[in-house]
Design goal:
The structure holds 2 protein chains of 2 kinds. Chain A is 92% helix and 0% strand. By secondary structure, chain A is mainly α. Classes of the chains: A mainly alpha, B mainly alpha.
Chain lengths: 143, 142
């Protein structure tokens, strides 16, 4: 339980670090990229706001857990629950396969309309496949 | 073991059906749609890739059905707890890395081409939707 508490504290610190470094990086990019299209600037702002919002929500959650012993215990039980872990693993496996198949189909379909989109999806699929191979090799060595 | 043999037979049959129907769909698509050269190339690439994999699969599975010892080995490999665990663990990591890579690529691409950024963003959104849907399914099932 004490380990779990430390883990939550560490996550809280990570969120704080992420918010500070994200904001710094944003201002740095804004300065460095003055000739960049408005779309990119807007996207960077959107990403910063989205990321910071998520971090704040997570930090509030961590704060509540650290102050309330009962809720911390509940969260600990939930994180150790075999069923939840199994669901998470099964979900990721199925989601990976479905996403890869959808991307493959999308490559063919978008090929009829836009070469750029099709090529982007093809590159995405290639990178995903490479990641699958590398991670599989890693886990085969590790486990 | 008998169930595993049936499963392998079904896989061989599926591969054969896939080969034949793939060829048929390819010819139909090329004839019906006035696809540009690039799309024709993609279709041909997809077809030849899939056919190669299917034929390889058939040649890999046929000897298993004829040799009892090889069938047993394949059965052990397929039901091996370690292999299943590796697959599950790697799928979890792969999805996280893929999303992060796509997000980074979307940011980088936004400086050059908005279409690429939107495509990658759509891909990330798709992964999110699929994950939510599959989680809901497994929450009910398990």
């Amino acid at each position: 339980m004490e380990k779990f508490k430390k883990k939550i504290k560490f996550r809280f610190q990570l969120c704080t670090m992420y918010m500070c470094s994200g904001t710094m990086l944003y201002f740095l990019l804004q300065r460095l990229t003055e000739n960049v299209p408005d779309f990119s600037r807007g996207m960077l702002t959107g990403l910063l706001v989205g990321g910071d919002l998520l971090a704040v929500v997570y930090m509030i959650r961590c704060c509540v857990l650290l102050r309330d012993e009962k809720k911390l215990k509940e969260a600990y039980i939930k994180s150790k629950d075999e069923r939840n872990n199994e669901i998470s693993k099964e979900t990721m496996r199925t989601a990976s396969v479905i996403t890869l198949m959808c991307t493959g189909l999308a490559i063919i379909i978008t090929g009829f309309f836009s070469i750029t989109v099709s090529m982007t999806l093809f590159a995405d699929l290639t990178v995903s496949t490479l990641i699958v191979l590398l991670v599989n090799a890693f886990y085969k060595k590790k486990m | 073991m008998e169930q595993f043999r049936k499963k392998l037979r079904r896989r061989v049959l599926l591969s054969v059906i896939f080969c034949l129907s793939g060829l048929f769909i390819y010819v139909a698509l090329i004839r019906i749609t006035g696809a540009p050269e690039y799309t024709k190339g993609i279709l041909f690439g997809v077809l030849s890739g899939s056919l190669t994999v299917s034929v390889f699969n058939i040649f890999r599975l046929m000897p298993l059905l004829q040799d009892e010892e090889k069938l047993k080995k394949a059965y052990i490999a397929e039901t091996d707890e370690r292999n299943t665990l590796i697959q599950k663990e790697s799928a979890r990591t792969v999805l996280s890395i893929s999303i992060m890579t796509a997000a980074l690529a979307a940011i980088a691409a936004s400086f050059f081409n908005p279409v690429i950024t939107l495509t990658l963003s759509a891909n990330i959104i798709l992964i999110g939707i699929v994950s939510i849907a599959v989680t809901a399914y497994y929450n009910k099932k398990l």
